[in-house]
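Suppose you are handed a protein chain with no further information: no name, no annotation, nothing but its sequence. What can you learn? This example shows the usual starting point.
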Amino acid sequence: MTSYTLPKFLCVVILTSMTWVKSEMCQGPCYDGWVYNNHRCFRYISEKKSWIDAEVNCVSIGGNLASDCCEEDSPFIKELQKAEKGEEPFWIGLTDCHKENIWIWSDGTHVRYTHCNDGEPNNLGEEHCVHTIWGDAGGWNDIQCERLYPSVCAMEIPH
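A reasonable first move is to predict its three-dimensional structure. Written in C-alpha cells, the prediction is:
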C-alpha cells in the first residue's frame, strides 16, 4: 500500500484534477453548438443572410463573423463549413465598407493574414464584403454585401 504525506497527497489530488480539466478542455471550452480551435470558438450558420445580417446574427449569439486571423485558422474554418454544407461559399468578417481598400475584420482583429484568390479583392461592382471557398483556388473573394450566404461566427473563449 502506498502511503502519502499530506503535501504529497494534495499534490496528487491537484495534478489529478488538472488532468481531468485538461481532458475536458479537449472537448472544447465552448458553448453547445460551437467548436473549439486555436483559442476561439466557431459556429457554422447555415441560414443564408446578407453580410451585415450575418454579422448582426453573430453578435446576437456572442461573437462576430469569423476573422481568419492566421494561417492555421483557414483550413479549420473551411473544414467546419465543409462538414456542414460541402463547398458552398460563406461569409467571413472581412470588409472595406467603411473606407475603400482599407480592409478590417468585424471583430477588430488586425489584418495580418489574407488568403485572397488571384486578382482579389477587385471591387468589381461595389464589392465590399468577403466570402470564402470561391473558385478553384478556394480562397477569398470580395463580393456585394447584399448577396445571401451562410456564415461562420467566432468568439473568444467564454470565461
